[in-house]
Queue: 2 jobs
Job 1
Amino acid sequence: MESREKNYDVIIVGGGLVGGCLAQALSLQDFQVAVVDENDVSKILQDYRDGRSYAISLGSKRILDEIGLWSSLEKQTQSIETILVGSEVDESFLTYHREDVGEDALGFMVDAGLFRRTILSKSLKSENVTWLSNSTVDEYQVSAEKVTVKTSQGDTITAKLMVAADGARSQMRTLMGISTREWKYEQLALVFDVEHKNPHENTAVEIFTPDGPFAILPHKGQSAGCVWSLKRSYAEDFLKLSKQEMEDALNLRFEKVFGTLKLITPVSSFPLSVRQPDCCVQTRFVMVGDAAHTIHPLAGQGANLGFRDVQVLVRELTKVLKLGMDIGSESVLKKYQRKRRFDNLSMLMITDSSARVFATQNPFMRWSFSKGFKFLNRTSRIKKHMMRHAMGLVKDFPRL
Amino acid sequence: MPHTDLKEIEQFSKHAAHWWDEQGPLQGLHAMNPARLQFIKHHLCRHFNRDENSKEPFKGLSFCDVGCGGGILTEPLTRLGAKMTGIDASEEAIAIAKQHAQSMKLKIDYQLLESEGLLKKKKKFDAVLSLEVVEHVANLQAFLSECSGLIKPEGALILSTLNKTWKAWALGIVVAENILKWAPKGAHDWNKFVSPQDLAARLRDEDVETLAVEGINYCPTQGWRLGSNIDINYILYGKKV
């Protein structure tokens, strides 16, 4: 392919949910953006299926609305009006209802494939976004004034800022030599969709079982997506079961939730880990989404943290652009890092400690827990605050 | 050279290599820049009847940055569309400014000159800006007269400096230079600080009417911000009449 050098304001590596949203949001503010993505655009537009769904918080919905994506998604989303969180052992449940916070919904379930296609077709229409598909970063150079990227397709592009949105196993992060700290849970998440006998009534349920948390999230109609995080050895036993055996095992424990469950997809699995990079900015380089933080998926907060990254980054970059200043300067990136650190770390700690505490077998811990649950259910102020944080509605986080 | 203070120029030349280092000896200037630019953009957009939300609001206007140093202010104004001229008496600073603008692909006319020299070339600008310079010149009235002389009729002037208060001495010199190292040691001389009232009166003598003064204050959680407290750092907008 012919080599050509083009200049942009921002280069985004990774055109997934977070990278795509960032491109769209920046283009609306008149930034010139190049997206380097390893996937084939036409393939994603035609028949990209993922099987997963994302739980989108109300805060994320508002961000997506601002950048003009929500209206294209809205019709095909399933709203969540009630969330039940409880323990399998003593059947104590904490109920979150939309009316507790005076909102129309607590969150939404969005099909991953639909999400991806919507973002992509929107960015492809934007004059300010150049999408380089089937491309990876071959060479990367950073100087005090700019970054230069050579892609695997032979394109040479330069920009004032490089953003890595290339996921939990970020190639850019490795290339930049940013080390990460990782905790493995020795757990596998089993992921599958089910049909259920009774209507879900727009309810999402998270049950903490002694083996690990089980989440059942409503889809359109009488179906739901399930995520069951289990100890590795235990999960591997489940993976060996036949469809019928698996359904029996599920119904034995979870039939009371939405009635008899029937598997409608194969059971897939992925290992659970928490990963936190030592920093998320370097000279003219910044990370967003899973590249900047991988948390325990039990509360479904991963994508939501990514959208909040996008919101804060775009806001800071726009301020600087409007003043004519250098958008890749150290002070802007440091400001972004400072503003995001508390939110990201606190969500990591909340999900991590829930995962550990709920999985405990210690009877005293379990007893204090169910007491704590009942206390929380009655104490609406604390509960409301916790809900608003999880819903992405807590506006200002203390700066660290 | 009637009002250049050689010692002052030497002071800034020494730090020329660090002009663009945001953590370096001139970090104070970098940190104040967003607040300064916010004030400048707001008032100059109103002055020239431009839309603050457009990408290049200053397109078609010519500005002169007097005492531009490495171009910390000159470059952003260029990106906002202004045709910029930057002058400075320090050879080292002008060299850095030229080199940096080139690497940023910005077209700026940098000249190793003082306001007096530029005035002799009979150049006039839509606006003249001189930030954190007033407190370094030897002959203030002569300097203001030259700035005014560079402005077209109905044009605008922006100045920023330190107030002549004990607070400005305590914070601007003792704390900023000696403790926090936001500015190089010995960069400021309290005797050259001037109050906004005094500055406005002096400007009136040079046909410039002061229309707005705001403070630039440091808040530990939010950084430098514009505000009504003008006890320490302040920025002024005036109009040539």
Job 2
Amino acid sequence: MIRHVVIDRTAKTVVIICASVSFVVLGAIFFFTFREGLPGVQEIGLANFLFGTQWRPGQELFGILPMTVGSLLVTFGSMALAIPIGIACAILLAEVAPYRVTRMIRPAVEVLVGIPSVVYGLVGLLVIVPRVREIGGSGFSILAASLVLMAMVLPTVISITEDSLRAVPKGYKEAALALGSTHWQAIWKVMIPAARNGIVAAIILGMGRAVGETMAMIMVIGNSVIIPTSPLSQARTLTGNIAVEIMYAAGTHRSALFATGVVLFLIILVLNSVAVYALRKGVKTSGVS
Amino acid sequence: MDPKIQIKHLDFYYSKKLVLKNVSMHMKERQITSMIGPSGCGKSTLLRSLNRMNDIIPDVSLNGDILLDGEDINAPEVDVVELRKRVGMVFQQPNPFPKTVFENIAFGPRVLGVKDKGRLNEIVERSLRAAAIWEEVKDDLAKSGLALSGGQQQRLCIARALAIEPEVILMDEPCSALDPVSTLKIEELMVELKKNYTIVIVTHNMQQAARISDWTSFFLLGEMIEYAETSELFSRPQDKRTEDYITGRFG
Amino acid sequence: MSAKTEQRVAKVFIWGGGAITVTILIGIVLYVLIQGLPVINIEFLTTPPQGGLTGEGGISTAIVGTLYLLGITLAILVVPGIGAGIYLAEYARDNRLTRAVRYAVEVLAGVPSIVFGLFGFALFVTALHFNFSILSGALTLVCLLLPTLIRTTEESIRAVPRSYREASLAMGASKWQTIVRVVLPAALPGIMTGVILCAGRIVEETACLYVTMGGSSGMPTSLLSPGRTLSLHLYYLVSDTRAFDKAMATGAVLIVIIIIVNALTNWLSHRFVVKMRGGK
């Protein structure tokens, strides 16, 4: 009965083809974004593109520095808040809270992940922007965007940090406690350092999400192409730049937007590689400080 | 008449590590042959070679011959899937599928192409009776196989293996995960089954081997030390190491 | 500061972190639901939006657009996604193909949605002349969701105990028969969880659809029609009109969908674990 041999072989081929779709897609993304983006960069000049401080399509000026700064600032702003809150919450879930509390908070974190970015943007627009306006400026600002982004990035930081803490072998904590340390000392001095790689990964993956966010940003950041000078300044992110202009761009302008996409792609690539590397290193099993 | 299974000068390697050394023995048709010896000395590996289950482990190799009815089972033209329909296996940990009792037994026949409902019902009942578990499950064949007790699950697995009507049944420490009462039931079952099937069992339990098997082989560190009719091996062991193991001086 | 005091202070911060997180969640959800739910009625759900600057009308075309997109995307996605998951879990050896697939999945998982949008815009909308359409949006989403479905499928299949495969092979079933008759049925709840997760992401996705689906508020009639999803509609309401109440209502609908999807995946995961452990 060689029929099953034929079926097995066909099945294997089909399955391999399915798997190949993944790197075909990746290759296609590379190919198309580079193909569209390269001519523009060649014409503008790489240095002018990356470091030019003026983005005025009408005058053929395509420097993305203002957007790069905008993206950087909101990323750091949101992470500055998300890291302490996220790590604290992760410690709560992994170590401190009784099971009943954990069982309520964890689904809450999961729902946060699922809320569409436009809803975050909407709430940010109606709740945060007016309040920032009371402090100064138009309300549309780096500050508002950072606060909104923090809420979006928080679940990522929490869940990965929590997983890393849970992966720390119980023996470390028990040894610390047996030596007379308090629960907090065991957490802070032993578990967190042991989970260091995972926490780094959580932060970096959070940053990746922050850099990649688009819709919520364009709703609260003001989208002005200026280099922001204060948290109350308006600004524009790299992602926002693409979204806002791609529909009507042509020629060099359009090419420059694709090139912006390539820049984003590369930033995320670097961030993700570092995060994956850190996650792979896993729990520190030697040299715990 | 040729023995059902013949093993000739078998060496077996996991990667480069030699796990079985120059094993030669045979299993007679419709008899129970048991393999005893301390843990880790290759008995299970040998058992799994008889239905080529070791094929699914990467980086294994062997020298020597294993013959079923006089034919080499490792020959390139042999279809391993067909082989396994003739040589069935029951594992140490009962492993019923997460399906109903009925579907567990019907699995083998369905794979063989049986579609007719009537025939399937017939086969299921016959197999469950042969495994001495029909009375216990006949009222609810739609129960999940995993909801049975350990001993029942193992008999279910035996029934499942019987459903494809193999010629040989391999059992890898079938009772080691079970309680004494279930063990006894399964031992009785094996003695019944040998009327129709050739049975090879690996066991840690010397008394079990002494109770039910016709032939016994003793393994130590990958080598077969001695092989004889059970009564001979246990009363008049030829090799000192066999004697030491049987009398409990080690193992 | 003594160790005990330090611990007390630390615990305040720790509980504070949890409190802030929960407050944010509840704040957002309640705010949207309280403002949005009252606006929802049958009329809202069944009339089309008027488009333009007024923001009058309902969300019927957006609902249809979302469902249409959901159906097409999942229909295209499941075969390559689940197939690749089966490959990685059952067939992959350590060779170049496997490494290429794993690398691709890892990288694709991190690419921001807007970059997928650019890709979709360049390939589907422009080069293949599908124009702004549901089809373009769906194909773009398939690319974006591949890593998610591949990963969850692989994990679910790997979670099936090896003993089931051994039992099946030992009875003379072939490898593919074992996969289809034993492994996949056992892994099914996990795989379905993955599919539902993808469905959830389709509903919430905006950026990549913004540049591939077009902004039409009309009723989509075919694969090549432009259209809106609920998320896109919310954005257009905010950017083109001042109808924040309708935006809130749309947001409320979205949040209800998310809560249902989450409950569904949690229930399915629970069933998966129970099934593996013995159906008791």
